Amino acid sequence: MKALVTVAEVATVEDEFEIDGNAIDERYLEYDLNEWDDYAVEEAVQLSEDGLVDEVVAVTIGPERSEETIRMALAKGADRAVRIWDDSFDGLLDVAAKTEVLQAVVEDEQPDLILSGVQTGDAMFGATGVSLAAAIDYPWAAVVNDLEFDGEIASVHRELEGGVEELTDVETPAVLTIQTGINKPRYASLRGIRQAQQKEIAQKTLADLGLDGVESELELTEMYEPEVESDATVFEGSAEETAGELANVLREKGVAQ
Amino acid sequence: MSDVLAITEHRRGELRDVSYELVSAGRELADDLGGDLHLAVISGQVEEFAGSLSREGVDTIHTVSEGEEFNHDIYTQVTERLADELDPSVILMANTVNGLDYGPAVATRLGRPLVTDVIGASFDGETLTATREMYGSKVETRVEVGSEEVAVTIRPGEWPEANGNGNPEITEFDAAIDESAVRSTVTGFEEVGGGDVDISDAEVLVSVGRGIDEEENIELVEELAKALGATLSASRPIVDNGWLPKNRQVGQSGKSVTPEVYIAIGISGAVQHVAGMKGAETIVAINDDPNAPIYDIADYGIVDDLFDVVPALIAEFE
Ligand SMILES: Cc1cc2nc3c(=O)[nH]c(=O)nc-3n(C[C@H](O)[C@H](O)[C@H](O)COP(=O)(O)OP(=O)(O)OC[C@H]3O[C@@H](n4cnc5c(N)ncnc54)[C@H](O)[C@@H]3O)c2cc1C
């Protein structure tokens, strides 16, 4: 039984930043493993520790820089990784483009279970996992926050809105998109980090995957800071001063009276 | 070819509000394109739902009475078949948990580009321009789609609910569901987040977010809540980390709260959080990032380090 986990390196933006053309100026970006994927990796590694999965393969679409991030997935227990990149990928990759690339990887790897994060923290499309499932004709479930797997049927909880969960049985092979909170992602141990140095990260080009080129039909034409609609009264001064002013407001509203 | 097909949503016998928002968004886009607005009502009490959805601006409602609750395989198949029949320019869906469980499959099966979580959309000729956020709402972007056939999911709460009465044609659509392609089964529902406290009853909430940094620091906000006679609630990461129980979570997948005073401490104000607390009478934010989206809805703010402000605030009430 093989599990494939899609992992993305995402950019997070500092509090103060500048926009340069249609992108955030590189100086204000930090790169990290996508929050949702951290939970997906953990879930796959736990299935492997429970003996339900023999191999956990992490796949990423990312430039060379992202090797550091994918090594984190290896340090946390994934067995090996595949990294796909093409220079044409700079800019916004849409869901269809990511799907095409991942579909080719699935054809190579033939996994039984694919775990994907619900969304990436930067582009926030929230669609790649389900789109991939449709492309490769696997059953799927989106926004999963509980998983029991007997080797054939994945019994999942799908987290709906308003504190309601839907209980669903999905046949495998399947794609599940993993929601935060499903488990407690581990920190990589020193031993894990050392071992990860020895694990394979196979680099693939589009040609290696038998693809001619992959194009996004979505074009990002503008990026701007949203107008702040704030009409908040912001208190100024030292913490004692601002806390004092806020305390007055709260007392006026009858708090702690 | 210039029509809009919007897929409505319901759950446990009730249409969801976003269904009426889809009517408004769908009508706008159909007007841009000079086409008709079609709605689909799939599963459950379709006739009753179609009656409620007979609002101004809707041209045709297609009903498919198949099963009771949402099943993504059914929704995917029906939407695909309707699209084959109607050839709409836009397939419009809701960016809800269920929308994200079938929308991407529809787009991929039909080979349409997909734009999700859209907060604004318009056509200029044949080009769709959509507005959406990125980087946890820190920026907005415009995205152009150069295809005559697109799939779009809209963020709930961004368009008004359509309300004028209309007189659409209501027709039953024979979707000829392929049962062998229904490979997931909904076995039930479960309410989560019960327990000793109900944060939706509280008049004053002290709510803590990821800015609190460490589990040990939760004590600090507990102390503030005590000093104010308030109840403690939290954003999702605090509950995901197991620092507070699920029944303390405010937001889309937690509780909706409407206290007199809501004090958000180290919470950025992501849409899914705001969905659960925007009805609070007075909103106070303590966050050291002046650009945090929480300030868009806050009435009072302190842009400073919570580890300085919270102890000072506790001192005020001791
Ligand atoms: C399907 C789905 C459902 C979701 N449901 C929910 C839900 O029900 N509820 C929910 O809350 N979220 C939900 N989320 C998650 C949501 O998108 C955000 O990730 C989450 O709300 C962020 O929580 P936060 O504001 O505490 O953390 P962050 O966004 O990380 O914000 C932390 C804030 O703390 C501030 N800060 C940091 N340090 C300090 C300091 N020392 N002093 C002052 N300020 C500081 C920072 O400036 C920042 O603004 C959901 C997401 C998805 C995809």
Question: What do you see in this structure?
Answer:
The complex is a heterodimer of chains A (257) and B (318). With 257 residues, chain A is an alpha/beta fold. Chain A has one domain: Rossmann fold. Chain A is globular. Chain A has helices spanning 35-49, 67-75, 95-109, 128-136, 190-198, 239-252, and strands spanning 2-6, 9-13, 19-20, 23-24, 29-33, 55-61, 80-84, 113-117, 140-149, 153-159, 164-171, 174-178, 201-204, 218-224, 233-234. Chain B has 318 residues and is of the alpha/beta class. Chain B has two domains: 4-181, HUPs (Rossmann fold); 199-317, Rossmann fold. Chain B is 27% helix and 28% strand. Chain B has helices spanning 17-33, 46-52, 72-86, 99-110, 218-228, 236-240, 271-274, 294-297, 306-317, and strands at 4-7, 10-11, 14-15, 37-42, 60-64, 90-94, 114-124, 127-134, 139-145, 150-154, 169-172, 184-191, 204-208, 231-234, 261-265, 282-286, 300-302. The mean pLDDT of chain B is 96. Chains A and B meet through strand 2, helix 3, helix 4, strand 9 and strand 10 of A and helix 4, strand 7, strand 8, strand 9 and strand 12 of B.
